[in-house]
Structures are given as structure tokens and as C-alpha cells.
């Protein structure tokens, strides 16, 4: 948006800009170690949606791309530190690599993306989806464990094991 005067800012540009700001906030939350799985899950979903919605909302600009990529590196560092130890770090690295390419494609024209190797585009999409699914599974395990701990604290019977997450 830095290239446009205020009067030239379009509705799609505003939508893309608010999505970028929200993604950066989520990634920075993960980088700080706060609700890492939830924040990263939401960011991955928004990034994929942003890339897919370029037809109507337009692409992000290079400055936004750079800010998102830097935030994703910070988030990856936070995730490597704060996600459960049983989560495979190689899987995190692959997912973050795919997410970086999703960000890159969000910033490019549809024409440029169409010239990419279609298998590469599918791999980037699928890699980001795997990360999204794995993060959602971590979130679900955390919710189950929290409910089980809550029941134990209230001395309610439970047949669900309390996991250390």
C-alpha cells in the first residue's frame, strides 16, 4: 500500500492489508510463545485464503510480503521452542517452507503463479495444509487435556487420560 495515495486505495487493497496485519499479529503471538498452535493455525489459514482470494482481493505488495516472511521466521523460531516436544521439527520446517511460498504467491500476479510448475504449486498448497492440520491436532489435544485437568481439579470422574501438552 505504500505506493498508493490514500485516495487511490481500493477496497480489495484494504481487505488484503487488514489480512496481512492480522497474520503478522498472529505470527508475532506465536513467536512470543503465546497460544502458539492456535495463532499459527489461524495465520496459515489466513495466508492460504489470501493467496486464493487474489482474484477478488488482489495481491499483496512486496513490502507486505517481506513483513509476512519476517514474521513467519520469528514464528518458526517460537514454534520450535514452544510447541510440544513430540511434534516433529522436520515437519514444522517443511510446513513453514510451504507457508513461505504461499506468502510469495500471495504477492505475485495470477499470471506469474500460472507459469509456475503446477506440481510445485500443489506441493506448496499441500505442505501448508499438512502444517495447518498438524497445528489443529495440537490445538485439539490441548483442549482435551485442559478439559481433563479441569475435571480432575473438580474431582469429577473422567475416562480421558490427561496428556502432558
Automatic annotation (TrEMBL):
Entry superkingdom: Bacteria
Name this polypeptide is given: Uncharacterized protein
Organism listed in the record: Bradyrhizobium erythrophlei
Higher taxonomy: Bacteria, Pseudomonadati, Pseudomonadota, Alphaproteobacteria, Hyphomicrobiales
Amino acid at each position: 500500500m505504500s505506493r498508493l495515495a490514500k485516495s487511490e486505495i481500493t477496497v480489495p487493497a484494504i481487505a488484503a492489508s487488514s489480512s496481512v496485519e492480522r497474520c503478522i499479529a498472529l505470527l508475532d503471538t506465536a513467536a512470543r510463545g503465546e497460544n502458539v498452535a492456535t495463532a499459527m493455525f489461524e495465520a496459515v489459514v489466513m495466508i492460504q485464503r489470501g493467496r486464493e482470494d487474489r482474484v477478488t482481493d488482489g495481491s499483496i505488495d512486496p513490502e507486505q510480503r517481506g513483513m509476512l516472511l519476517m514474521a513467519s521466521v520469528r514464528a518458526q523460531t517460537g514454534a520450535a521452542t514452544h510447541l510440544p516436544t513430540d511434534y516433529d521439527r522436520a515437519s514444522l520446517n517443511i510446513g513453514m517452507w510451504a507457508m513461505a511460498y504461499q506468502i510469495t504467491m500471495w504477492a505475485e500476479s495470477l499470471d506469474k503463479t500460472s507459469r509456475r510448475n503446477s506440481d510445485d504449486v500443489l506441493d506448496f498448497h499441500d505442505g501448508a495444509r499438512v502444517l495447518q492440520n498438524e497445528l489443529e491436532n495440537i490445538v485439539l489435544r490441548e483442549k482435551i487435556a485442559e478439559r481433563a485437568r479441569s475435571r480432575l481439579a473438580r474431582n469429577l470422574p473422567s475416562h480421558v487420560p490427561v496428556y502432558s501438552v
